Amino acid sequence: MRTQVVIVGGGPSGLLLGQLLHKHGIETVILERKTRDYVLARIRAGILETGLVNMMREAGVAERMDRECFVHHGTCISYENEMFDINFQELIGQNVIVYGQTEVTHDLYDARAAVGAKTMFEVENVEIHDADRDAPCVTFHAEGSTQRLDCDFVAGCDGFHGISRKTIPETVRREYEKVFPFGWLGILSETPPVHEELIYANSTRGFALCSMRNENLSRYYVQCDLSDKVGNWSDDAFWDELKRRLPDAIAEKLVTGPSIEKSIAPLRSFVTEPMRWGRLFLCGDAAHIVPPTGAKGLNTAASDVHYLYEALVQHYRDNDSEGIERYSERALARVWKAERFSWSTTNLLHRFPDQTPFDLKMQRAEIESLHYNETAQRWFAQNYVGLPY
Ligand code: RFL
Ligand code: PHB
Fold first, then answer.
1. Which of 25, 108, 220, 388 has its CB 3.0 to 4.6 Å from that of 15, i.e. a possible disulfide?
2. How many structural domains are present in the chain?
């Protein structure tokens, strides 16, 4: 078998890249380790930046998103009983939308099937060969046999635990990592959101987040210990803890109900450099992870897709390799800015086990400066809605 671009991983990065390349007549095959249903059952991101929204439109997959999404003009931050709004619309004339990653992925799978582009599921033992030569290929096990796909390029869109990153030799690869000493316990419940905007809450008991998917589907998180297990948390225990971390006026309004999903995610900052090795490109979580506090993971994956898609179109259409040569540098310049925002919002809003009384005073002073200083709010707003590509 032969194709132009093999995409390893059928998450949002791989699917969006595939759809955009298809628009330009570039053929792709997506190799996905899991089943479509498994990928679609993962509950992840909820906030989309304008850059990602525009790419969904460019890929021709925005119809349902434009119809069903919720536009958010700002976000709220609380500390104990204080709460303030950072109004993106007033500060910088931009906004974000609420539309779940599950829905984005769903729409992209439907669009891919509609154009007849090839996706192979339950593919095992994917290996990338000769990425540093002129003629790479990918071997894998699927449908009962070992298969081989020859190609021009490989896009490693296989997430943090994928194989693409590890294909780059250790002598070339440099990794930067910070593991935070806590996780987020999240639940999804068929209840109306407690507030019209998201609330990021700093409290003496730890961080909490009130998010949503639609008018009767809420997503809530509380900071928890890394050693914690989902089984330790009954729904009642979760709701009680969440209420304790929110301002009284919000806690009183909270509508509780049975959880329909409950999971714990560890928090990590991670970047690998470079993001290109010969004809292999890393894209999305395969190359970098952010703690979810700034809602940047999926959105940063989308900016990688933007640079990679432009580079490949430039190569095939204009016979110009400038975009390919500069992919890693361009993508990483934006990645590090998203890393900084995610790291700083995580530091601002969480309780750390080793925080001294002085550290707590500094954290409080920083939140108050965000509360009362318009320049600080503008910086936050620009980063939250997404820096330009
Ligand atoms: P994914 O989504 O991990 O997809 C990778 C795909 O590759 C497959 N795969 C393989 N396929 C073939 N062979 C192999 N060897 C393979 N190994 C893996 C996997 O099965 C999978 O289908 O990476 P991608 O596409 O780069 O997308 C990244 C996003 O999923 C991620 O950044 C976001 O979900 C992060 N994130 C958030 N991002 C935001 O922008 N806004 C948010 O509000 C937000 N909230 C979140 C989040 C992530 C969370 N968790 C659970 C980590 C909230 C949470 C709780
Ligand atoms: C979510 O809705 O899952 C969500 C929203 C904002 C974040 C992280 C997660 O910063």
1. 108
2. 2
